Structures are given as C-alpha cells and as structure tokens.
Amino acid sequence: MANGRGHVGGMANERGRVGGVANERGHVGGVANGRGRVGGVANFPHIRRKIQHTPQAPLAGGLLPGAWIAGALLGGASIAGALLAGASIAGALLTGGPIAMTLARRRLVRVPASSANLGPGFDVLAAALALHLELEVCETGAFAVHTDLAVRRDRDNLVVRAFERLHPADGFEFTITSNIPLSGGLGSSAAAVVAGLAAADHLFELDADVLGIAAELEGHLDNVAAALEGGFVVCDHGRAHRFEPPMGLEAVLVVPNEAVHTDRARAALPASVPRDDAVFNVAHASMLMLGLATADWDLIAAGLQDRLHQPQRAHLYPRSVDLLARARGLGALGATISGAGPTVLVWCTYEQTGPLLEALRRETDGWATVMRGRFEPQGADVRSF
User: Structurally, what CATH architecture does the domain formed by 106-243+378-384 represent?
Assistant: First the structure.
C-alpha cells in the first residue's frame, strides 16, 4: 500500500497475489507477495483499468510472518483518499477477514440538441443547440433506468442500447433528464446515442470511435456530429469538420404540437433532382458557409434557401413551411426546417430575439410551442465523480 510519498509497502498473502491502490500521484502501492504479481485499482482517468475487480478480495491468514506494513499505516497517515469509496479494511487487517470493495463509479454526461440540414445543406450541415439531455450513470450493482420522459425504462432504452454497444450495462443505474423535444427534428435520438456511448467510453477508457458508432446506430451523421462536437459541422463520408458559431447569432425554435415521423419525411423525397435545383443548393450552401465564417448577416439570410427537401415535404407540415416564407417579415434573418421537421429553426441576431419571440408566439398560438435558443459551442461533456 502506497504511503504519502508514493513508496510501496507490501503484505504477503498465501496465494502470493498483490492488490494495489493508486495514490494521489497515480502510483500504485501493492500488497507484496512471493510471486511479485500486482493488481492495481486506478482512480484517475488517464490510468487504464485493465483489471477484473471482484466484490471481495480475501486476505488469507491475516498478516504472515515477515510481512511489513508501510509507515503510512503505522504512522497514522490517512488512507481514506487512497482507497476507493466503500473499501473497508478495519478488522480485515486484524482478523484476516474479507476486504469489501465498492467501486461506485459515476459519470455525468451532458449532450446538446442539434438541427440538421440548415436549409441548403441537406445531410451535410448541422448545428448544436442549447437544449440538453443529461445522463447520470452510477455503478450500484443493479441495473435500472430512472426518467420522467416518455421513453423505455429497460434495456431497449436508446441510451442503454448505445452504452451496451461498448460494454454491458449490468450493475449500472441510468438517470435521464432532457429538455429536448422527443420529436420534431431536434436530434433527441442523436443526443441519447451520444450520451450512452460517451458514458461507456469514459467509464472504461476504451478510446472508441464514438462518432462512427453513433452515426451507425442513429443513422444521421450530421446530428450526431453536432451533438458530439458542438458548434456548426460540415459532414462528408463519415467525417465531420467543426467550426465556431459567429458571435451574436441566435435562434428561436417553433415546435409544432403534431409530430411527423422521420420515415414519412424521408419517403417524401424523390430519388433524383433536377440539375438546376442541385446547383441552386450548392450556391446557397456556399453563401451560408461564407456568411457564417465572416459573421455576415446578409449572406446568412441569403443562404438559407433550399430546393432539395423543404418544398418536397411541404404537404407534411404546411404551417411550418408557410412560416419559412414569412420569417423575414416577422423580423428574422430567415428560417429553415430543422432536420426532417416539423420544427422551424428561425435565425436571428441577438438584438432581434426579444421582438421575434413575441411575434412568433402570436403567429403560432394554438399549434406550436416557441422556445428561445442559441447555437451551442459546447459538445458532449463527460464528468466523473
């Protein structure tokens, strides 16, 4: 066991195995044996956990003759911080009884909402939005899902399914909260998938391809890239390129009460498009990108138009599409359908936001909820406790 200076004192057991606990510098103090094997428990994120921990590790026969205890124990130095939470050694050292070890690993993950397409950037452009899903994963020894959301509470929960893509969820409890609407095109499923994968990847230090696996599970690279990276993203054949939102650019969300299933929205799209429409979208996506890169509000406003997906889906949510045409008259830079819809992402500057909120609430009274939003520069965040 490590003392205050990181030196190692040892205790031999009958099997000659060594159990170790990481000290504050990340060095491992062990219980020494004849075979010189070391089993370590790392309590820092940069130390790989490659060891299978058992709930109880017997210390056979107590202290064998010839074993010595490091000065940290004899001198009365506190070892509470060095031992993982719940480890009990009092009595075990004196009687030779079992040492009970409770790992109680815990992670808190926060993932933003996302809006894909952004007008002309069909399946290519997306942005993170300042609505969030929060996931707490805690190792308790039992599996459970706790949430007030209208989602499954078993292993078919999307967060759990994503988690189990990297590691079994046995022994972990999942607590999920979110202010992202569950339908409407704001990336709620992408946030759930990213949260589950990020939690497992961080807990077990797997260095997994979270973006690639999330895109495979969720089906939309643009949404998962924005949720994972934050800011604005440009996606291309499995890769995502991120850039910062311009200062002063905001958004207002109009979320209709009636949802449209993504499959119906996809089915409304033709297999091919006229060349003129394709060229139109390339031009407007380029203007939008230049406007975002230079904080040019006029270019952003000009670049929000689309001919590839919004007109084709107009019959699914006519009031949302009608709002696209009237957004500038209400004081906005413009508006786009968020993802497959029917939510409308209304683009504005900081100064326009207050009056625009009031105007949109009047216009959508009875059929939609209006929410203030902003473009979120922070992507998925994982914290350990």
Answer: 2-Layer Sandwich (3.30)
